[in-house]
Amino acid sequence: MTNLGGTITLAPDLTIHRVGYGAMQLPGAHVWGPPRDRDEALAVLRAAVEAGIDHIDTADFYGRHVSNDLIREALHPYGDALHIVTKVGAERDDEGGWVFARTPDDLKTQVESNLSHLGLEALDVVNLRMGTPEGVHEESIADRLGALVELQQQGKIKHLGLSMVTDAQLTEALAITPIVTVQQFYNLVVREDERMLRRTAELGIAYVPFFPLGGFTPLQSGVLASVATRLGATPQQVALAWLLQRSANVALIPGTSSRAHLTENIAAAGIELDADAVAELDAIESVSLSDAAEAAQAARG
């Protein structure tokens, strides 16, 4: 059986393998428009499920609608073991620009759109996405989360999560409803979110790093490359293995539009980093989220 890093329980009725799949790279350049290779995109999704991956992270604004439409075409009707996680809080304009859309009515509309394009009656997990590409922002999320709780009560959402939130916002959310996952910008070189990682571990909430491999600006480090060479692995595999060993509540969603890269990402779960490797990687200088976001924006052009 494929090693997917063990399992993590998000709720009594929701246990997933720690290695999942992120659908952000399925659309074309800048997460917009059709994929470069539609057949390969469909094949990647099917290969992920065949390998045992049981959770796919997506959003209706990937594409717009492209990722969700591909997931439906490749995998519908979904097996009972497959869980679809999506997020709301943004839309795309007709030129592909990113637009925040977070009123209660906006969020309800986005949930309905996800349901329609995925061909589902209920979404396994919906993450409320807050913040901006530059970081998190303190503000109340009660009315927005409340709108999602209404849909949960109607049976359209099974579980709720958060993305790009502060410690105070997580506290506010937990006073309203159970939270099963927190999705934040975190990887080997962007580690500002250590406090949230520790807190979610203490609370038994899954911590899901997005851009685990750097996103639009792939991770680059001489130390990372050196450790990878010593272990006979790729730098990307070592970066994923480091995240899995960082905390037992980490669940990964590396994305790719290539079956070859999918196989490499899955293989990272089988890499054991010894104490020396971990110490070297931990010593890599961390950059701020704002600097990482600026670099990502430059890469997007």
Describe the 3D structure:
The protein is globular and about 50 Å long. It has one domain: NADP-dependent oxidoreductase domain (TIM Barrel). The chain is an alpha/beta fold and about 300 residues long. A seven-stranded parallel sheet has the order 3-4-5-8-9-10-11, with helices on one face. Helix content is about 40%, strand content about 15%.
Note the topology.
Blueprint: E1 7-11, E2 14-17, E3 21-22, H1 38-50, E4 55-57, H2 66-75, E5 83-88, E6 90-92, E7 98-100, H3 104-118, E8 123-129, H4 142-153, E9 157-163, H5 167-174, E10 181-185, H6 194-203, E11 206-210, H7 222-231, H8 235-246, H9 259-267, H10 275-282, H11 289-300
Parallel strand pairs: 3-4, 4-5, 5-8, 8-9, 9-10, 10-11
Antiparallel strand pairs: 1-2, 6-7
Helix pairs in contact: 1-2, 3-4, 7-8
Brief overview, please?
This protein has 301 residues and is of the alpha/beta class. It has helices spanning 38-50, 66-75, 104-118, 142-153, 167-174, 194-203, 222-231, 235-246, 259-267, 275-282, 289-300, and strands at residues 7-11, 14-17, 21-22, 55-57, 83-88, 90-92, 98-100, 123-129, 157-163, 181-185, 206-210.
Quick one: overall form?
Answer: globular
Task: Identify the strand order in the major beta sheet.
Answer: 3-4-5-8-9-10-11
Number of domains: 1
Say how many strands there are. Answer: 11
Number of helices: 11
pLDDT averaged residue by residue = 95
Share in helix: 25-40%
Spatial separation of the terminal alpha carbons: 42 Å
Q: What does the radius of gyration come to?
A: 18 Å
Unreliable runs: none
Q: Which CATH-level-2 architecture?
A: Alpha-Beta Barrel
CATH H-level homologous superfamily name: NADP-dependent oxidoreductase domain
Order of helices and strands: EEEHEHEEEHEHEHEHEHHHHH
CATH class annotation = Alpha Beta
* Major sheet description: 7 strands, parallel
Sheet-strand content, in percent, reads 15-25%
Q: Which fold does the CATH topology refer to?
A: TIM Barrel
- SS class: alpha/beta
